[in-house]
Structure to design on (293 residues):
């Protein structure tokens, strides 16, 4: 998998956030997620500020069911409505984004994060001056996989803080 | 004494998590009201006796900071105890919220953090009442 500037910090923040929110422990997966987009649910949180872009989280359906159940403190096997699953994924995107931006920017910088939305699929990086892929992590657990990616508008140069 | 709580967040999952965490933290909760944006939050405060508000920042219709500004501008609610629970990472913005009298809890949160902040808040309110 191609290396990007912020891959390591994306992985660390994603893993820490999933662990804290849902008590799930995911490990790095060097391979891109298998399966079609129909097997996954994807959410995006757009942000603006000193630099702009979007944070995208894409998880396999089984992971999302477990994630949502854990966030809500439900017993194993309790049915989880799809709307709550989507809500949980949007919140995951929101929290990862909020924790990641000060790491790749600066704690004094003010960002505005839009309410997250559900996407049909993980976006493709743009080579024509749009958003470029600045960091990506693939994580795996027994239930399935999670992919987290941050895209930043190509007009802005962002270095790693500290 | 039970606290009547208002939870303001556009995510129903987060509202459920906060309410569950209040129980895990051992907070004596009375009535629990929920709102999905700042506008609904203000309506709930107008309609019910609320002792403590938990609010997110980034919400549609009316965000958390605008809700706080409107609360602090109203003599009825200028001292209403308020806790912001948000992913906000800007030290600048957090300081601004604290200047408006809001306590801040960073997401993801723990029951211990919520317990400590509520305990601090209740202690502060009791001090004001006995002064």
């Amino acid at each position: 998998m191609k290396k990007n500037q912020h891959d390591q910090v994306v992985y660390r923040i994603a893993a820490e956030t999933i662990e804290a929110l849902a008590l799930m422990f995911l490990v790095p997966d060097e391979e891109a997620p298998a399966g079609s987009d129909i097997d996954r649910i994807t959410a995006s949180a757009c942000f603006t500020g000193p630099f702009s872009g979007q944070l995208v989280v894409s998880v396999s359906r089984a992971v999302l069911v477990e994630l949502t159940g854990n966030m809500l403190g439900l017993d194993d096997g309790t049915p989880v409505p799809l709307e709550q699953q989507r809500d949980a994924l949007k919140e995951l995107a929101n929290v990862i984004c909020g924790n990641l931006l000060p790491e790749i920017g600066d704690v004094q910088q003010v960002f505005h994060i839009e309410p997250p939305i559900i996407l049909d699929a993980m976006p493709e990086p743009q080579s024509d001056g749009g958003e470029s892929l600045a960091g990506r992590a693939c994580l795996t657990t027994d239930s399935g996989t999670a992919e987290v990616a941050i895209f930043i508008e190509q007009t802005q140069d962002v270095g790693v803080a500290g | 004494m039970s606290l009547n709580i208002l939870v303001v967040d556009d995510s129903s999952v987060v509202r459920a998590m906060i309410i569950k965490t209040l129980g895990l933290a051992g907070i004596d909760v009375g009535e629990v009201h929920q709102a999905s944006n700042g506008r609904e939050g203000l309506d709930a405060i107008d309609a019910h006796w609320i002792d403590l508000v938990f609010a997110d920042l980034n919400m549609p219709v009316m965000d958390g900071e605008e809700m706080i500004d409107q609360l602090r501008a109203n003599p009825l609610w200028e001292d209403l105890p308020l806790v912001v629970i948000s992913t906000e990472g800007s030290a600048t913005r957090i300081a601004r919220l604290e200047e408006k009298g809001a306590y801040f809890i960073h997401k993801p949160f723990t029951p211990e953090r919520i317990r400590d902040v509520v305990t601090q808040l209740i202690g502060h309110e009791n001090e004001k009442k006995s002064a």
In short: DSSP finds five helices and five strands in chain B. Residues 81 and 121 of chain B are 7 Å apart (CA to CA). The radius of gyration of chain B is 13 Å.
